[in-house]
């Protein structure tokens, strides 16, 4: 029996030993009391019993197997400590209670309580920017190079064995006890030469520091002494600030901009400041293949290609919601019973919602609304309607929409359509579970569009699992997963976002629960949940509105917008270069390198576009390989102690240059370490992390 199981057995038999000493009424239920796992991952529980039993209540971090049985209670408790580890990682021990309901053969029922505790594992370290000396570096400025003399004196070094012993105190208080001989010899030489000496102190047995007024004369006298190895000015070291001037962040003043937390998370206040330089000059078209758009939303004015510029409704069925089949009007229509929720309008607003005042066309409508990522850049959305008013789309319609968006000809109702503004970027905030065979026609089209030069970004899916969604899983498409806020210095994987090998990038898509309110903003006096706020439409009132949505549908246009900005600024010039830049500058999350949860990481607009630094703070980022985030406190010396579950952790000490609260991203100084915690390594000390 191992140590843990011996401890459990002792606890379970204690009541029987007491009964032998003090008679009492027999207990009819199984006698269970407490289990201490210590740092073990599991422990057995056994108790004699006749009858049926089952576990009816248990904390989320404990797994019990089996959960029911008949006869003697015999089960195993396993701890998944990560499910109860708080964000601050400051709880050294976890505690929980199991409730066991039982029934004896004679029908008597009851409950027994089993208390369980488990010790956490410890991770120690320190984050210190010692290379910067807290923002300063030391540079030498010798006095002989024309610097004003500061009467700092001379350092004089005598040859080994040439300094004779002097009686301590010969030269009074000006010669200190340490290195008295060297200091005394210097004073004797200089005073013999008639030089006024202000003082001397010994630094070692043959090195002294001498203070004089006439530096050149003193240097000549000392250098003429054959016992002197060298005499040099006591050079002054000056602290010189090395931190560069920080740019001011550009934060929009639109009414609902404070609710748009994804932009700050990706570093857009630095990017928008960068746009003020006027470097974003190349026109870019982003095709949004979706449910259509509301051209009459005032916050989208000027950001859309219209029906005379190539906008197109692909759906040929007359019952598609607008009743007129394929045409050049991809307006997201009203149908009976529809109230709110124009998906295509919401996606389009993330990319191109206008800044500043708009021509609000309804009473009480916001005069400024929200903002889009592309701000001043000449980026336009091409609306291509392929999803009907019920939210459905056929593979055939998506095929036509993708082909048309990429500039390939399509035939609809006997007419051939050719896009006058072929899209460099195609946004597909749509998808579904298809078999590879079912997806072949769609994937062939995606590849054809990619070969035509388009970047195709597709939503990875909201299936809460690992099933590939198409077209995201098609070769030639870039599958985009979703992250959301965690309350710590890194976003976490959104639980609804499907994870599979084709996921290549992630972006903020928001939470699936209104309980998450880490963004700190409020709407109508209530804390705003971590959802994505953008343009929408109220079909009940037939007027514009703004809506909060979440999903990989909302994450995908974040990536499409950034790709468009890379092309507009000229950082990249083609699809391959743009994708490579997005991957290389993404914020690596979860395990080091590409993984199924995050792909290469969350897109980082500030790093990708080379935006100027708007902040420079030092901090800690801590995640496990499952994407969970923890934020232990740093003390005044940068030290931290985290109590964590067993697992592998990626620990980053770094600087935050784009003021998004994430330390050590691409293009930011960082020191990344990996630590494995568990029974075999219950304590790991990482030492000092020094971002460089």
TrEMBL record:
Cleavable signal peptide: 1-19
Indicate yes or no for the key word Cytoplasm: no
The regions listed as transmembrane in this protein's record are none
Q: Which UniProt keywords apply?
A: Hydrolase, Protease, Serine protease, Signal
Q: Peptidase S8/S53 domain spans which residues?
A: 284-601
Region (Disordered), start-end ranges: 316-342
| Database matches in SUPFAM superfamilies | Subtilisin-like
Q: Pfam families in the record, alphabetically?
A: Peptidase_S8
Which Gene3D superfamilies does the annotation name?
Peptidase S8/S53 domain (3.40.50.200)
Q: Which residues form the active site?
A: 290, 343, 553
Q: Which family does it belong to?
A: Belongs to the peptidase S8 family.
* PANTHER family in the cross-refs: CEREVISIN-RELATED, PEPTIDASE S8
Tell me what this protein is called: S8 family serine peptidase
Q: Where is the organism placed in the taxonomic lineage, from the top?
A: Bacteria, Thermotogati, Deinococcota, Deinococci, Deinococcales
């Amino acid at each position: 029996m191992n140590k843990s199981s011996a401890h459990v057995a002792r606890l379970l038999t204690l009541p029987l030993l007491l009964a032998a000493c003090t008679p009492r009424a027999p207990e009819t239920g199984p006698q269970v009391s407490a289990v201490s796992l210590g740092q073990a991952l599991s422990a057995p529980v056994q108790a004699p019993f006749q009858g049926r039993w089952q576990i009816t209540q248990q904390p989320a971090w404990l797994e019990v197997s089996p959960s029911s049985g008949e006869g003697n209670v015999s089960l195993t408790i396993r701890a998944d400590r990560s499910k109860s580890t708080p964000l601050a990682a400051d709880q050294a021990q976890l505690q929980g209670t199991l409730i066991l309901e039982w029934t004896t053969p004679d029908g008597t029922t009851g409950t027994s309580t089993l208390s369980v505790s488990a010790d956490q594992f410890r991770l120690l370290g320190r984050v210190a920017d010692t290379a910067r000396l807290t923002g300063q570096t030391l540079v030498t400025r010798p006095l002989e190079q024309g610097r004003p003399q500061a009467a700092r004196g001379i350092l004089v070094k005598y040859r080994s064995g040439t300094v004779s012993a002097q009686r301590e105190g010969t030269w009074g208080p000006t010669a200190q006890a340490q290195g008295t001989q060297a200091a005394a010899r210097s004073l004797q030489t200089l005073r013999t030469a008639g030089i006024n000496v202000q003082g001397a102190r010994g630094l070692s047995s043959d090195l002294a520091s001498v203070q004089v007024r006439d530096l050149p004369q003193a240097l000549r006298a000392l250098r003429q002494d054959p016992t002197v190895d060298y005499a040099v000015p006591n050079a002054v070291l000056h602290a010189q600030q090395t931190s560069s001037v920080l740019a001011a962040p550009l934060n929009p003043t639109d009414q609902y901009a404070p609710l748009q937390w994804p932009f700050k998370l990706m570093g857009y206040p630095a990017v928008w400041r960068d746009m003020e330089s006027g470097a974003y000059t190349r026109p870019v078209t982003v095709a949004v293949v979706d449910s259509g758009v509301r051209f009459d939303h005032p916050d989208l004015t000027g950001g859309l290609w219209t029906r005379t510029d190539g906008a197109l409704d692909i759906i040929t069925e007359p019952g598609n919601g607008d009743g007129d089949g394929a045409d050049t009007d991809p307006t997201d229509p009203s149908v009976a019973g529809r109230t709110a929720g124009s998906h295509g309008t919401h996606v389009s607003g993330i990319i191109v919602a206008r800044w500043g005042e708009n021509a609000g066309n309804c009473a009480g409508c916001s005069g400024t609304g929200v903002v889009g990522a592309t701000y001043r850049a000449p980026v336009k959305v091409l609306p291509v309607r392929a999803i009907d008013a019920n939210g459905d789309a056929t593979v055939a319609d998506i095929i036509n929409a993708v082909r048309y968006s990429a500039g390939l000809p399509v035939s609809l109702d006997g007419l051939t359509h050719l896009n006058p503004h072929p899209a460099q970027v195609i946004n597909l905030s749509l998808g579904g579970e298809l078999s590879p065979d079912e997806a072949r026609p769609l994937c062939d089209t995606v590849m054809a569009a990619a070969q035509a030069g388009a970047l195709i970004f597709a939503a990875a899916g909201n299936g809460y699992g690992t099933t590939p969604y198409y077209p995201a899983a098609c070769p030639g498409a870039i599958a985009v997963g979703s992250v959301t806020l965690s309350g710590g210095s890194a976003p976490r994987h959104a639980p609804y976002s499907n994870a599979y090998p084709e996921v290549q990038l992630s972006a903020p898509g928001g939470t699936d629960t209104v309980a998450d309110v880490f963004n700190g903003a409020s709407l109508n006096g209530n804390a705003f949940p971590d959802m994505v706020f953008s343009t929408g439409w109220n079909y009940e009132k037939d007027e514009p509105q703004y809506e909060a949505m979440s999903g990989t549908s909302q994450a995908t246009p974040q990536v499409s917008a950034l790709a468009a900005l890379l092309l507009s600024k000229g950082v990249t010039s083609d699809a391959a270069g743009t994708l490579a830049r997005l991957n290389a500058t993404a914020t690596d999350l979860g395990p080091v390198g590409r993984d199924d949860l995050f792909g290469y990481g969350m897109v980082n607009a500030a790093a990708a576009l080379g935006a100027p630094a708007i902040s420079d703070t030092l901090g800690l980022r801590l995640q496990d390989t499952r994407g969970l985030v923890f934020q232990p406190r740093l003390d005044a010396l940068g030290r931290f102690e985290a109590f964590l579950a067993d697992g592998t952790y990626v620990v980053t000490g770094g600087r935050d240059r784009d003021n998004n609260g994430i330390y050590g991203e691409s293009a930011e100084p960082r020191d990344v370490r990996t630590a494995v915690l568990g029974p075999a390594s219950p304590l790991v000390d990482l030492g000092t992390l020094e971002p460089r």
